[in-house]
Specification:
By secondary structure, this protein is α+β, with helices and mostly antiparallel strands. The chain has one domain: 2-Layer Sandwich (hypothetical protein PF0899 fold), CATH 3.30.2320.80. 28% of the residues lie in helices and 32% in strands. The protein has helices spanning 2-21, 41-52, 132-137, and strands at 23-34, 61-67, 70-73, 78-81, 100-102, 106-115, 123-126. The strands form two sheets. The protein has a four-stranded mixed beta sheet. The chain has a three-stranded antiparallel beta sheet with strand order 4-3-5, with no helix packed on it. Helix 1 (2-21) crosses helix 2 (41-52).
Length: 138
């Protein structure tokens, strides 16, 4: 199950970023996950809960945003969101296409946590776009 190693990598990346940002506690990780990424969302969620036990991210939520498949239709000359990943046909005109524009990504794009040491410290959210795939696998 490769979701376990992905969850481990997410936790490592989030812990590094939290330290860099000065977050004392991470409450949530925000992940964009494409339908064609090859990752089973439920298995990743389960693995994340296991991997965070005993770490600085224990108790943090993994918030997963599903990213639909978007293809480019050569006939319509527009990007179209597919209602289902297969078949790879334009939902408007039915033309076959393999030009996938979106839906393969796996991107850790934000952390939510508490800053500093005080319990009344302000929330801080890192909105820097960081490609988890590039950082961990590329």
């Amino acid at each position: 199950m490769h979701e376990l190693s992905i969850a481990h990598s997410l936790v490592e990346l989030a812990a590094e970023e939290a330290e860099r940002l000065g977050l004392r506690r991470v409450r949530a990780l925000y992940l964009k996950l494409g339908v064609l990424s090859g990752v089973v969302k439920e298995a990743l969620q389960f693995s994340f809960d296991i991997v965070t036990e005993g770490t600085s991210l224990e108790g943090a939520d993994l918030v997963i945003e599903d990213v639909p498949v978007v293809v480019y239709c050569p006939r319509c000359q527009e990007a179209r969101t597919l209602p289902e990943p297969m078949p790879m046909r334009c939902p408007v005109c039915g033309t076959r296409t393999a030009d996938v524009r979106q839906g393969r990504e796996m991107e850790l794009y934000a952390l939510e946590g508490d800053e500093g040491d005080g319990k009344d410290a302000p929330d801080r959210r890192d909105q820097t776009e960081r490609s988890q795939k590039e950082r961990l696998f590329g």
